[in-house]
Amino acid sequence: MKGLLLTNYYLIHRSFLMYTALAIVISAVIFYFADPSFYRIIAMLIILLMAMPALEVIKLESKTGYDKYVLTLPISRKNVVQSHYVFYFLIVVIGTILSYGVFSMYSLISKSAVENIVNIVSFGTFIVLFAGALAYPLLYVFGAEKSDGIVLGGGMGGLFVAIALQGVVGYIVEILAASSLPIASSLHVPILYTLFGVVMYIASYFIALSIYQKREF
């Protein structure tokens, strides 16, 4: 697994660094010109831009022929799918941490604290996790040639689902607020969004694994 993860990283490490720098620059520009209503978009863009190269791994594997070569190695198809999902998840975690850092830095520089940073960033994390959950099964079905449209569709799908879930999350938050669970009320929303994102991502893994095991090369 470690070798597969390192291979994935070396395939996209240049574009990953470039997109990371781009995410910081774009977020700084939006912070300068936009108002707080754009904060969720900033969080989403930071994480999404960092995660985009991870979704390009399958495309690069196809171009270099590595997707066929890797099947000749003493590893299972399950390991290949796991490496894609684990790698993407790790990039999303790094993007989430960077997003927190960017918002914290902005609060220090502007001397105006950004309220509910955890909620803002968790919303973006959910969108990007859902984008990956939607993209990987489709990439295994339609192939790397359709990757650009699939990645874009995954991001848009994540945004629409996150907006649609707001009512559900609000309803569950009301139930949790009325309960005696020892969880701070400020953490209800981020915990729920993170939980929904992880559950959908895990479900997507099993769907993608089933598709990949039946795939013919």
What does this entry look like structurally?
The chain is mainly α. It has helices at 2-33, 39-55, 57-64, 66-69, 77-110, 117-142, 147-164, 166-178, 188-214. The protein is built from nine helices and no strands. α1 (2-33) packs parallel to α5 (77-110). The model has no long low-confidence stretch (mean pLDDT 78).
Portion of residues in beta strands equals under 5%
Low-confidence stretches: none
Our Rg estimate from Cα atoms comes to: 18 Å
**Into which percent range does the helicity of residues fall?**
over 70%
* Total strand segments: 0
Question: Average pLDDT across residues?
Answer: 78
Please outline the helices and strands.
Layout: H1 2-33, H2 39-55, H3 57-64, H4 66-69, H5 77-110, H6 117-142, H7 147-164, H8 166-178, H9 188-214
List keywords for this structure.
single chain; globular; 82% helix; 217 residues; 9 helices; mainly alpha
Outline of this structure?
With 217 residues, this protein is mainly alpha-helical. Helices cover 82% and strands 0% of the residues.
